[in-house]
Structure formats: structure tokens, C-alpha cells
Amino acid sequence: MEIELNLPWIEATMLAGVRMIAFLVIAPPFSSSAIPLRIKGMLALGLALAVAPRASAGYVSLDTAAFFVALLSEVLIGAILGFLVMIVFSALQSAGSLIDLFGGFQLAQAFDPQMMINGAQFTRLYQMTALALLFASDGYQLMIGGLVRSFGALPVGGGIDLAEPVQAMTAAVTQMFLAAVQIAGPLIIVLFLADAGLGLLTRVAPALNAFALGFPLKILLVVLLVTLVYVALPQLVGTLADTAFGLLTAVN
Question: Domain map of the chain by residue range?
């Protein structure tokens, strides 16, 4: 009894799986430590089998040296695509970090091993909310859809031109900083006005020591006003998911 193996199909599926796992390890929401590595590997294998017909179309079997080069190329492609998504969603984490900085919560900074971030309360809260909303709003499907489309423009074993990814990363970093300031901007302005008011109060009544009262006052303002920003997070996460999908398709 002889069993014939379709070696080009197997090689193409393996290369597709390598690109998938490199993407899932870096890109949110799949990069969270709450998702075990075994689950990520199974998900990558399932997605690789799903895209096998597209990945294997036109694929020619490679020799050993060329296959290992193709493996490294797929790791690079998956990591670049995942890094683009990570940069986009870092805007919410950066917005939370700005609120912690200007609101006086930065002294409570700590490392969260599950979320793999280093920040205070609102940094972790915004990151956790963004990941939950990505699953609740099916935004993760946009990430997977953009990754699947990459096999049409960047076939397995074909390499990648780094000019477009570098340009996309530059645009993503710019958008990330801009989005972070836009998200946390209204609250930062309120806190700045509170500091200015306390400064004027100190000039009028120096013995009052208004700056000693500034810390609890700013914390109270943050707790009261952060809900106005928090209720807008579902729409913001949807916008960021569309932006990440646009960057993935632009690289492709």
C-alpha cells in the first residue's frame, strides 16, 4: 500500500502556519497571556488549514536551504503584520498612561504579567477593556481577515519588500500618538486648568498650601470625568480595528 503525499501542499501549509503563529504571538487580542500558547498554536494550525488552498496555489516545492529561508521570511512577515496591529491598539494604552501621569496615579505603577504591560490603574484598565471589546465586537475577525488577505498579495515563500511595511509602521506610530492625545486630551485639559487654578489660589493665599490639596482634587476629577471617556471606548475600538485592517491591507 502506497500513500502519496502532496509535498507542495504540506510545505505551503507549514509556511502559512508559521506566518499565522508569528502574527498571533504579537498582535492583540491574541497576544494576551490569558490565551495559552497551546491555544494559539491550535488556532494558527486551524487558520493555516483554512487558507491552505489559497497559500498552496502556484506554490512550487523548495529545496532544504530555500525552505528554511522561506520559514524565516514567513516569521518576518507575520511579525511585521502583528506589530502593525499592536502599534495601532497601543493608542488606548498610551491614553491611559497619560491619564495616570496627569492625574497622579503614576506612583502606583506596576507590571501586569497577564496583560504584559507596565502601567498604573487606567493604563491596565484601558488595555483590558480594549481586548474585551475586540472579542465582544468581533473586531478580531477584521485582524484575521487582513492576515488571510496577505496570502494573496504576499504568497508563501515569496519574500517581502520592506519599503511598504516601514512606511506603514511610520504612519501607524504617528496615528498612535495622535489618537492617544485625542482620547485623553479633554481630561488632560481639565487637569491642566485645575493646576492653573491651584497656582492662582496659591498666589492669593500662600498659607493655604493649595498644591497639597491638588493631589486629592486631581484624583477626584479623574474619577468623575474618566467615565465620559470610558463610554466612548467601544466606538474608539471599532475605529482602531478599521485602522488596523486598513494598514494590513495597505501592506498587502
Answer: 7-251
